[in-house]
Structures are given as C-alpha cells and as structure tokens.
Amino acid sequence: MKKVKDQAIWFILPSAIGFIIFFIFPFIISLGYAFLDKPVGGQFVWFQNFIGLFQNSSYQKALRNTAIFMGLCVPLNILCSLGISMVIKNVKRYKQLFTLVFLIPLVIPSGSMVFFWKMMFANDGFINGIIVNLGGSAIHWLETGWALFVIVLIFIWKNLGYNIVLLIAGISSIPKDYYEAASMDGASKWQSFKFITLPYLVPTFVLTTLMSVINSFKVFKEIYLITGDYPHESIYMLQHFMNNMFSSLNYQKLTTATTVLVIGITLITMGLFKIERRVAE
Amino acid sequence: MRKNYAILIVLSVIFILPLLITITNSFMSEAEIWLNYTTKLSTFDLVGGITQKFVKFVLIPASVTLSQYIAVLFEQPTFIVLLMNSIKITLPVVLGNTAVSLLCAYAFTIWKWKHKEKFFFVYIIVMLMPLQAVLVPNYIIADWMNIKTSYLAIILPGIFSPFGVFLLRQSMKAIPKEYFEAAKIDGASDWYIFLHIVLPQMKSGIAALSMLVFIEYWNLVEQVIVFIKDYYKEPLSVFLSRIADGQIGLIFAASCVFMFLPLWFLAMGQRNLEKGIELSGVK
C-alpha cells in the first residue's frame, strides 16, 4: 500500500486566495475606513462616522424604506408561497408544470420586463385606462406612495417561485404516517395542517425568511430599471443611498454603511438560527 | 380537487401573462406598437372627441411579422455589441466560479484540518451578505488593483464568490464517504479521485450552480452602475431600460432575445434549478 499525502491544500488554494483577496481583505480595509475621519492620512475617530451616518436624513430614509419593504415582503412572500405550495402538493397531475410557471419570473432578467411594467403602471398606462373607463380617476402609481405597493407586487411576482421550491421540498419531507394517524384519530384537515404541517415546516420557514431577507435587497434592480436614478421617496432604498455615495466617492459613508449592513445581516442570521434551535428542542 | 386545479390555473395565467404579452407583441409591427403603446393625442383623436388615451395591451397582434427581430438582430449593431458584453461578463464568471468552487468544495470534503468548519463558516457569512454589503469591498480592491472601470472588477469577485463552494459542498455530501476511502486504500491520488469519482457524480450539482450563477450575472444591475461608466460597455441587462425609453418599436423583440437563454436553460433543466434552490438553503 502506497502512502498518499493529504493534497487538500492544493484544491482549496485557488478559491481561498481569491476569496481572501476579493472579500476578506477589502472587508477588513473597509472596516478600518469606517473608523477614520478621512481616507488618506486619517485619524481614528471612534464611532463618529456611525453617529454621522445615523443622523444623515437620506440614510434614515433609505434604512426605513428598506425595513418597511422587508417587513411587507418577507411575510407576504412566505404566506403566498405557503398557500400555493399546499395547493400544488394536493393536486395529482402537472405538479412540475405548475412549479415551472412560478419559476419562470425568477429566471427572466429584470430588464426584459421593464417596458411591460412601465406600460402597466404609467400615468396613462393600462391599469389607469381600466380605472378611468370604470369611472374612477387615474392613480399616479410610480410617483406617489403607491410606488411601494407596485414594487412589492413585482417583487412577489418574481420571488414566489424560490420559496415555493423550498416549501414543497419541506412539505414532501413530512412522513405520510403522521397524516394517516391524525385522520384515524378524527382530525380535520385544518387540524392536521395546524398541528403537523406547520410545526414540521418551522426549519423551512426559518430558511425562507433568511433567503427572503437576503433576496429582498435584489429588488433594487427593478426599482432602478423602472424608475431610474430618482425614484419616489417611498422606494428610495439602501442601494440608492450607496450609489449617491459612490458618485461622490464618500469613503466614510460607504464603508460605515457597509459595516452597519454586515452587522445587521449577521444579527438577523444569528437570531433566526437561535429561533430554529429553540423550536427544534 | 377540481377547485385546486382552478386556483392553480387562474394563478398561472396571471403569472405568465407579462411573459406572454412580451412574447406575442415581439411579432407585432412597429406601426401597431406605436398605436397601442403611445398615448400622445393626434389631431385625428381630437376631432374624434377623444381627450385621453391609455396604453392598450393586445395579446394577439393584428398582423404577425418578424420585422422587430430583423431590426434588433441585423439592423442595430449596438444591440449585438451589448449582448456580447453580457456574454463577456457572464461566461467567465460561470466557468471560473464553477471550476474554482468544485476544487474547493472537494477540498472541504476531504480536508482533515481541525479548523476547517470555522473557515467554512467564514464562507457562509460572506455568502449571506447581500450585494450591497459586498460592493464597497469590491470597489476598494478594484481601486487598489486599478481595474475599476474594467469588466474584471465584476468578473473576479464573481469567480471567487463563496456561494458556489457552499452549494457544491452541499451537493457533494450525497456521495458516500466509502467511495473516497476505498479509492485511497487502493492508492489513488486526490486528483484521480476528484476527476474519476467525484466529477462524474456531480453533474446535476454543477448544472444547478452554473444555472444559478448564470441567472444572477445575466441580470446584472448594481455592479454596472458602480463600475461601468461607458454606455457601450454596459451589458444588455441595464441597457434594455434605455431602449424602453426610446425605440419602443423593437423593445419586445429585444427583451425576448435577452430572456431566451435563461428561459431555455429553465426548460432544459427545471429539476436542476429546483435542486440548486433546495441546496442553497443553509441548514
């Protein structure tokens, strides 16, 4: 028998070097900038940049809007996808086909749908045409607080499929015997949903919540492509704020905002995992 | 039972309608597009007593023509240039990320270093960061390397993105450990095991990853705004919204050409995409 050396290190090296150069190293540099008063020859200023950032009214608006958007989208997305997954699970034929329908919006590039959405929600767009023909008055969808509603709608359209795939996999992994035992005990459909399906899906819910939170940042693509550089203030998101800082190359604001976001996402992730562990016990 | 099908069919129609209208209208003549999608009033309208016009969505064009596609593919050199830009960014990322991630995922599978899970955890944390959190570090390093306005600023972080490592490691867990051990005892090198035992069993994992990466980079927006300052270097993903503002006579065909590849991949490998989504869940 020949002795074989552990060659794992050669396999990991390409990825590890690139990962450290393009992610870890600049993350650390970025963290450093967040505590300096200017990028070149700056002094350590403790949390001054953070205080300045949170006092910035554009940042407050961006943070609030991003939070509101997530607060609406994440639960709505999970509720809708749960409903649809249960229905798909209950039909006997064409399951794959129905899942396919909900996956299509996920793969279509946002740019390909821009013109459609614009024509749908423009002031003289399709929806306003219907409203006016029915005797109502036109709504300025993208130039008022309704913009948030429109964006939520488009987000749900695009992202339902992702959760549906995860939930169908979750539902399929629940042992069938549980439902049979429950129905023998005379449990109604609603009861077995409430006492078997829901509790068993908790890990899946944690997962879909996490993925929805992360994916909800991607809605910037639609907002930017449909409404351009200057959207209505109800859909002014974190990425808009970052773009403004990029164009003025404000390193302090950029790196501080990045640090806050990294901490925020890490806390949310840890919180969700803690919930999952508690439920598992 | 009937009710379930009815719900699903109604929902499916609603979900598919934006796509359907985009596809059917790509066969519409330019004149008909202007008629349906412009709402400026002509003197003709005013005489007829029409005071306000709205956009009309028409599912079936009055006359079917390929003129939009001919205009987009043969008469608009910019469109092809921008489509090529999308390919120039997406292809290296998909190939590079898959290759690098395959090697790394294999290393994490066979590595016996006691801190490897901790190191892997760093990959997961970075993977969970939304693009907005990664863009600034990407910008800093691109600035240092002086590649700020080149595609490399987008491609290189894409190749080393930790997501692929995570996904493929998840997928590799399905291969029984005994395979590796048996081969090791027979004196096979890690390279041999990687090429002849692991790779053949990773086909669907690789397909799932390349599909997810492709979809993401084909739909590139944020990085373009930050890094690409020249219109003609933009990928089509961003430029389509500019076409939508101007040449509405060919926007539908342009949209269809751009979404053809992702839709085709979905049709070919729906199961792979689903698998990719299932595996990408952190558990």
Automatic annotation (TrEMBL), chain A:
Q: Listed GO cellular component terms? A: plasma membrane
Describe its membrane topology.
Multi-pass membrane protein
What PROSITE patterns would the database entry show?
ABC_TM1
Keywords associated with the record: Cell membrane, Membrane, Transmembrane, Transmembrane helix, Transport
State the InterPro entries in the record.
ABC_transporter_permease, MetI-like, MetI-like_sf
As for subcellular location, the record says: Cell membrane
Segments spanning the bilayer are 12-36, 67-88, 97-117, 146-174, 195-214, 254-273
ABC transmembrane type-1 domain ranges (all copies): 63-273
GO biological process terms, semicolon-separated: transmembrane transport
Concerning SUPFAM superfamilies, the annotation shows: MetI-like
Q: Which superkingdom?
A: Bacteria
Q: Which family does it belong to?
A: Belongs to the binding-protein-dependent transport system permease family.
Among PANTHER family, the record links this protein to:
ABC TRANSPORTER PERMEASE PROTEIN, INNER MEMBRANE ABC TRANSPORTER PERMEASE PROTEIN YCJO
Protein name, UniProt field: Lactose transport system permease protein LacF
From TrEMBL, chain B:
The domain of life for this entry's organism is Bacteria
Q: How does it sit in the membrane?
A: Multi-pass membrane protein
Residue ranges of the ABC transmembrane type-1 domain? Answer: 83-269
Q: Where in the cell is it found?
A: Cell membrane
A GO BP entry: transmembrane transport
Q: Name one GO cellular component term.
A: plasma membrane
SUPFAM superfamilies for the chain = MetI-like
> Keyword set for this entry?
Cell membrane, Membrane, Transmembrane, Transmembrane helix, Transport
Q: What is its main location?
A: membrane
Q: Name one Pfam family in it.
A: BPD_transp_1
Protein family membership: Belongs to the binding-protein-dependent transport system permease family.
Name this polypeptide is given? Lactose transport system permease protein LacG
Q: Name the species this protein comes from.
A: Sporotomaculum syntrophicum
Q: What is the organism lineage in this UniProt record?
A: Bacteria, Bacillati, Bacillota, Clostridia, Eubacteriales
Q: Which gene encodes it?
A: lacG
